Amino acid sequence: MNRTRLLMIGALALALGAVVALVVFKKLQGKGSSSNEPGADVIVAADDIQVGARIGEHDIRTVRYPASALPPGFYSKRSQVLGLGVILPITRGEFILPSKLAPENAGSGLPSLIPRGMRAVSVRVNEVVSVAGFVGPGTRVDILLTGVPNGSGESQTTTVLQNVAVIASGHTLERNAAGEAQSTPVITLLVSPDDAERLTLASSEGHIQLALRNPLDTLQDAVAPANAKGLYQGGTPAAAAPPRPHVTTVKQPKTAPPPPAPSVFSVDVIQGDKKTAVPVPEGSGEDPK
Known about the structure:
Blueprint: H1 2-34, E1 39-45, E2 60-66, E3 119-124, E4 140-147, E5 156-175, E6 181-191, H2 193-205, E7 207-213, E8 226-227, E9 264-271, E10 274-281
Antiparallel strand pairs: 1-2, 3-6, 4-5, 4-7, 5-6, 5-8, 9-10
């Protein structure tokens, strides 16, 4: 009797569990199908694409994403991005967006990296000038010039430009005195037209040096020029502080105190029953001698 009852209870529990599992499965299936939204084709990078490259067929692929997960401005057709130049690095699997591509008909390579109103100027450097090779695309530098100013007999270093963006680094082939081709490193800087003139003049006037700076540090510091005298102990720096003015204290003359008021004596004059006090100034009396 007890065994039969236990079997019935077990069978009932199994049946109830199966019903509950079926109901939960139906609800989950219905929920998943209700949240299933239509997808959209989007163009992503098939491999890493470097700055200045022109997008080709092998650089991109088409994938399907939910429409709500796509960023604004995405491309859905391969023909929309083929042949455009890349102005920012694109990693594998990343969306191809307009902010990372040059405008249509802008070409590829270095010209596509130059914004409107700016100029790209290249300067010849070496391992010292380029801060041991750490100056590369995406970094920012200050331009220092060392030379002898007109009318001065000593060298002076001054900061010509600050917070200048480096957009390219590479090599150019030149010939030495023997006529043999040699490789010379160059750095390409992004500057305004006015700064391009100053940079070109600085390159011809003396020796330039690049000072690497933190990209987050965008402050323009007021740096005074440095000369040879300021490097040695007891020397006078280029921009010395003005001397403090000498203040002279003028003493006011002492004035003598006013003389005390003369003492006044009085004499009682009695006439009958009247008594009158008559004042007599001191020293007005005759000498008793």
